[in-house]
Amino acid sequence: MSALTICIVAVFVTGYLCIALESLTKVNKAAIALLMCVFCWTLLMIDPASYYPTIGEGLLHHISEVIEHHLGDAGGTLFFLMGAMTIVEIVDSNGGFNFVRDTMKTRSKRKLLWRVAFMTFFLSAILDNLTTSIVMIMVLRKLVQQREDRLIYAALVIIAANSGGAFSPIGDVTTIMLWIKGVITTQGVLTEIFIPSLVSMVIPAFILSLQLEGKFDKSQNLPTAQVCQFTKTQRDIIFWLGVGGLVFVPIFKTITHLPPFMGILLVLGVLWTTTEIFHHNTAEDDTMAKRVSDILSRIDLSTIMFFLGILMAVAVLQEIGVLTMLGESLNEAFSGNYYVINGIIGVLSSIVDNVPLVAGCMGMYPVAAEGPMAVDGIFWQLLAYCAGVGGSMLIIGSAAGVVVMGLEKITFGWYMKKITWIVFVGYLAGILTYWLERTLFF
Question: pTM (2 decimals)?
Answer without folding.
Answer: 0.72
